[in-house]
Amino acid sequence: MANHRRQMSTLRSLSKRQWTRIAAFFVALGLLSGAGLASRSFYAAEHHATHVTAYSATDSNAQEVSRGSFREPLRGASANTVYVTVKINGESRVVLGDDFTDVKSVLDAGDITLEPNDTVSPALDAKIAESTVISINRAGAKLETSQSPIAFNVVKKETSALLQGQQKVETEGKAGVMETTSLVTRAGGKIVDSNIFASFVKSAPIDKVILVGTGTRSSSAPAGGATKSTPAPAGIGTTVPAGAMQQWAHDYMLSNGYSEADFSATVFIISHESGWRVNAMNPSGAYGLPQALPGSKMSSMGADWATNYQTQLRWFWGYCAGRYGSVQGAYSYWLSHHNY
To answer: Comparing C-alpha atoms, which of 95, 44, 50, 48 is closest to residue 72?
Structure first.
């Protein structure tokens, strides 16, 4: 019977010339693969997404700020949110929005007021995209950074480890630091114009915690000399209001169904987010007491959202309820993530 199978060359039967062609083929294949990987790595490096960070305007490596190392997810951002960088005398900040039409609309959204002698590039009526960088040069002005203290609160926590009527300081209070960077114009050694560029919590205050006894002698001194473990103070504690804003928040909350614990949670978050500064403005674009991102979201509570602490707080409580179920839910999340 005739054999119709095709005769196949074995490796041993290949000529030297054939071996050379095979080797050249594999070398070329390796070069193409390497080029592909290099191109892919280059593309990934060029298009790597950068997180918008919360950082000190004077220390880009600072981590002890109001929102940890970065915001994830960015509160207020959506699929349509555009991030535009604005540089004023070389210092950058980010303005967020989803309805920008031109350079002027970005400056309006960022509450950036131009002076008569300012130069702006691109022009105010120029169309913008996320890659646009707006540069503002102000002659005779420079950025100056100052720091101011953030008052700490007194928090009282009940514990059965102390007898009724007894108190003990568990943690001494320590003021926080608010850092403010302003664009300042001076004439004859005097400030003639000053605009806040960024103002945020550099380091948060530490509350003074006072333990308040609720125990009796029988509960505090067990019979037989047995060693009794010291129970941890229960709950978040009761915070003593400090200042007019906190007093209003306390009274408003208690008269609207909130608890003392809800108020304590509010004070903790706001103290860490903005130091109770109504105009606190992080370089990432967050604004106000609750550091809403962008700040204009608070307009849902009132047209005076940029200056009215009551409007900002009402928005904050609504946001906490909607996202975390309650203010204390937001507080628990903050303790774990250092943001909310």
So the answer is: 50
User: Residue 243 carries which side chain, given as an amino acid letter?
Assistant: G
325: left (phi over 0), alpha (psi -120 to 50) or beta: left
Residue 133 tokens, joined = 């960088």
Q: What is the pLDDT of residues 302-335, one digit of tens each?
A: 999 999 999 999 999 999 999 999 999 999 999 9
For residue 217, the cross-strand partners are: none
Arithmetic mean of pLDDT, 163-177 = 92
Answer whether 320's CB lies under 8 Å from 329's CB. Answer: yes
Q: State how far Cα 262 lies from the chain centre.
A: 22
Q: What is the model's pTM? A: 0.63
- Looking only at the bridges linking them, the beta strands covering 119-121 and 133-137 are antiparallel
Structure tokens at 254: 């208690």
Query: 82 and 98 in contact (C-beta within 8 Å)?
Result: yes
Q: Cα separations (Å) of 105 from 97, 122, 215, 230?
A: 9, 13, 62, 59
Quote the CA–CA distance of 285 and 83 in Å, as a whole number: 9
Rounded Cα distance, 334 and 66, in Å: 11
Short-list 296, 280, 330, 264, CA closest to 54: 280
- pLDDT tens readout for residues 233-276: 457 899 999 999 999 999 999 999 999 999 999 999 999 999 99
CA distance 54 to 60: 9
CA atoms of 37 and 254, how far apart (whole Å): 62
Residue pLDDT, tens place only, 45-65: 333 333 333 333 333 343 333
Q: Are 241 and 154 in contact (CB under 8 A)?
A: no
**Is pLDDT of 277 > 90?**
yes
CA distance 56 to 183: 16
How many CA atoms, within 13 angstroms, populate the side-chain half-sphere of residue 93? 30
3-state secondary structure of 91: strand
Parallel, antiparallel, or unpaired: how do β-strands 208-215 and 167-171 relate? Answer: antiparallel
